[in-house]
Design goal:
By secondary structure, this protein is mainly alpha-helical. It contains 5 helices and 2 strands.
C-alpha cells in the first residue's frame, strides 16, 4: 500500500477532533468502502489526536480524509447554513472554517493526488 507523509501541521481543536472521530464512527457503522479501507480509515480517524505532519498515511485513507474534511467544511462553513451570531452557530461556522483551512493546506501539499482524484471522478 502506497503511503505519503501527511505533511501538514494542524491544531487538534475540539471541533476538529470531534468531527474526525465522527467520520470514523460513520464509516465503522456503514462500512462504505471495499476491502480493509474501512478498518484503516477508522483507525486513522480514531487516532487523530496522535496525527502529526510526519504521520505516514495510506493514500486511499488520505483521499477519504480529505473528502470528509471538504464535505464537513462545505456544510458547516461554505454553504452558509450557520449564519446566526449565537454561540452555537459561531462555533460550528468557525470550526468549519478551520477544517476548510486544513483541507486547503492538504490539497496544496498533495496537489497531484487531489488532481488525480478529481480526474477519477469525471
Amino acid at each position: 500500500m502506497e503511503q505519503i507523509r501527511l505533511g501538514v501541521k494542524f491544531s487538534k481543536t475540539k471541533y476538529l477532533v470531534d468531527e474526525v472521530i465522527n467520520f470514523g464512527e460513520v464509516v465503522q457503522a456503514d462500512q462504505p468502502f471495499y476491502g480493509d479501507l474501512n478498518d484503516r480509515y477508522v483507525k486513522f480517524c480514531f487516532g487523530i489526536k496522535k496525527v502529526t505532519a510526519s504521520t505516514m498515511v495510506d493514500v486511499d485513507v488520505f483521499v477519504e480524509f480529505y473528502n470528509d474534511l471538504m464535505n464537513r467544511a462545505s456544510i458547516d462553513y461554505l454553504e452558509g447554513h450557520y449564519y446566526h451570531d449565537d454561540e452555537e452557530d459561531t462555533y460550528i461556522r468557525n470550526g468549519g472554517k478551520y477544517i476548510y483551512k486544513v483541507a486547503k493546506s492538504l490539497a496544496k501539499k498533495h496537489k497531484l493526488i487531489i488532481e488525480e482524484m478529481a480526474e477519477g471522478v469525471k
